[in-house]
From TrEMBL:
Residues 30-256 form the Succinylglutamate desuccinylase/Aspartoacylase catalytic domain. This is Succinylglutamate desuccinylase. Keywords: Hydrolase, Metal-binding, Zinc. It comes from the Bacteria.
């Protein structure tokens, strides 16, 4: 195991910040996989999964069973991990400006276009120079730049997250639907969201768009585009050694399927249980009133359009305002806290059909 620690610019003088990665196997030996956790620093299931992966991969490396290289970033957001407010981790948004930490990763398209116009056609050299030309000066910007730079060296990129109270689900580009099915099979996930262009420049899409730029200009073939995927490991409260070990073993099995590690591959199961939903059909239901949520449905339950999902109970007069589904599909996530305000997201539903108000390039919400 090799450990690399990279210093970031200090937020406060005398208080150093570092990004740390751990790699297993040999560079240049085979295909490469990158796995990170904690980009949203208030989402902790993946952080424990990484710790289990470190122990497992250390054993595999000693047995010379790693056929390529695997890089782990145990905590992708040291800035967010510093944001503890009255005992609660506030690591989803940058408290200095309110920006979601998983938005606005570097967009290299302009830098790449500039190099193309200068007559360059070697993708590796163009990418290297474009990254060198776009290094930010601020701490969070450099952190994102470093994460993207490292991830772009790999053939597989898994970004481990979780939702609030949720079932395990994945987000990826439509190009990688079948590979996402195989990962979902290994993990036991039943829901995959796919899209052509989500927008907002989250980590997984920032990686995809770099390689798509080369493909669109016929400098590379589509088969070279790395599989980048966001893995939502259930909800924020789903942190345990039992689940983390299970998820780590599933990731190892997936890496075996991909030929990166010599291990037992994922057992083939009936893939019909895994449902692929268009991200354009994801419904972020808004609360029609303020009050206490009383649920009739839970994450993982099938829902139909017009179905009664919950009541919002007014704390002043006890009046109940019903919450109805607007899609045919499944409930994926709901809030942990049951006291809500009108207009707040009250559920994430996966719908089978595209919704009229969902537009490519604006499919992600900024909560």
């Amino acid at each position: 195991m090799k450990t690399i620690r990279t210093e970031l610019p200090n937020l406060v003088s005398g208080q150093p910040l570092f990004l740390e990665s751990r790699s297993f196997g040999e560079t240049g030996r085979g295909r490469r996989a990158y796995i990170q956790a904690g980009l949203h620093a208030d989402e902790h299931p993946g952080i424990l999964v990484i710790q289990h992966l470190v122990a497992m991969l250390d054993d595999y490396e000693k047995q010379d069973r790693i056929l390529g290289e695997i890089t782990l970033v145990p905590l992708a957001n040291p800035v967010g991990m510093m944001q503890n407010v009255l005992g609660y981790w506030a690591g989803r948004f940058d408290l200095s400006n309110g920006e979601n930490f998983n938005r606005n990763f570097p967009d290299l398209s302009q830098a790449l276009e500039k190099r193309l116009l200068a007559g360059e056609t070697d993708p590796a050299l163009m990418l290297q120079q474009s990254l060198a030309d776009t290094v930010p000066t601020d701490t969070v910007g450099q952190m994102k730049h470093l994460l993207l730079t490292e991830a772009l060296k790999h053939d597989l990129v898994l970004d481990l997250h979780c939702d609030t109270d949720a079932v395990l689900h994945l987000y990826t580009n439509r190009l990688h639907t079948e590979r996402a099915r195989k990962l979902a099979q290994a993990l036991g996930a039943d829901v995959i969201f796919v899209e052509d262009f989500a927008g907002g420049q989250p980590f997984d899409e920032a990686i995809f768009r770099v390689w798509k730029w080369f493909c669109d200009r016929e400098l590379l073939g589509s088969q070279t585009v790395p599989f980048s995927v966001t893995v939502e490991l259930r909800g924020q409260a789903d942190v345990s050694d039992v689940l983390a070990k299970q998820d780590a073993e599933a990731i190892i099995a997936f890496l075996a399927n991909e030929g990166i590690i010599s291990a037992q591959p994922a057992i083939s199961v009936n893939l019909t249980r895994i449902k692929v939903y268009p991200l354009e059909g994801a419904s972020h239901l808004q609360a029609p009133a303020s009050g206490i949520l009383a649920w009739l449905k839970k994450p993982g339950d099938t829902v139909t359009s017009g179905e009664h999902l919950a009541d919002i109970v007014s704390v002043s007069d006890g009046q109940r305002t019903p919450v109805y589904s607007n899609v045919n599909g499944v409930m994926v996530a709901r809030p942990v806290m049951k006291m809500i305000r009108a207009g707040q997201r009250v559920a994430l539903l996966a719908g089978s059909d595209r919704l009229n108000d969902r537009q490519d390039g604006n499919l992600l919400r900024h909560f």
